[in-house]
TrEMBL record:
Complex formation: Homotetramer.
Family of the protein in this entry: Belongs to the FBPase class 1 family.
List of residues binding Mg(2+) 1: 102, 122, 124
Fructose-1-6-bisphosphatase class 1 C-terminal domain: residues covered: 208-328
Biological or metabolic pathway of the protein: Carbohydrate biosynthesis; Calvin cycle
Gene name of this polypeptide: fbp
Binding site for substrate: 125-128, 218, 245, 263-265, 275
Catalytic activity: beta-D-fructose 1,6-bisphosphate + H2O = beta-D-fructose 6-phosphate + phosphate
Subcellular location: Cytoplasm
Protein's name in the database: Fructose-1,6-bisphosphatase class 1
CDD domains reported in the protein's UniProt record: FBPase (cd00354)
Amino acid sequence: MSITKENTLAQPVGITLERYIMRKQAEFPFATGELSQLLRDLALAGKIVHRDVNRAGLADITGGMGTQNVQGENQKKLDMEAHIRFVRALKNGRETCAILSEEEAEIIHTDNDSGNYVVAMDPLDGSSNIDVNVSIGTLFSIYRRITPPGSKATAADFLQGGRRQVAAGYILYGSSTMFVYTTGHGVMGFTYEQSLGEFFLSHPDIRVPQDGTIFSCNEGYWFDYPDSIRTFLMDCKRKEYSGRYIGSLVADYHRNLFNGGIYLYPPTSKNPRGKLRLLYECYPLAMLIEQAGGQAVISATEAILDIVPTELHQRTPLFIGSTNMVRALVGAGETVPASGQLVASAG
């Protein structure tokens, strides 16, 4: 049908997240719908947090709690607000038997021991930016449990390794709110339409450019970075690449995913094992970037998804983004193994 004055007001708005999930579920004859419902639960909590983020100043939920999380970081009011929203949505959804959150030291049991999935999450990444109206986000990683249904989930359900993720994604709260996820079959992006209360497919089959001209890191740690990192960054500057660093992992990652670039968080003397959390920050972003055609590594020989986890809140360095930029970094001298100790590259 051709577009005329009479029908321009009734153009299609696109496919909703819920309908997209249902269609994809129909492609798998043995699917039970549990994972689909779990993704919808996360999207629902994301809508609520979107509302909370947008009215934070009015609702007096900015500022600090006066407490610290398991990482020793000061908790913001909105951190705990998001934590409560996501935990509540996952408990009510009844598909999850346990949750691992950045805001809690121990596993959170949902009182649904028959649930087949566990979720590791950072309910609100970018806490330092909450009070200054800068983009922040939620990260999540989903596993099918390995302990018997009916029993209590244990740490083993969360320590399966990045390759065992069945789905992963993030929600970005910025100039628009986006839900980006993968189930191992490409990366899909959905934008929230507030007036309709729905996420609509806006970015199908996202692919990261193989090259980029953006580097993202905290250059305040310049003199604490390994020589190989400084050499790489100096080369970027000689090429007049753009230094872009927001300080919200999801926001920096999201920009580079679409525009091409590399995000770096090397080890430092203060954080010799790296600072970012492996299970609910690095694993989900690594799964997404690999599905989008990029790379996430800690050395020339070890991908993030191949790190064997040993702790629930384990930390790691991270180099992630466009394939050619990541390869230029880790192939340029020293490498960073999982321990965070620098060793000479084998070449």
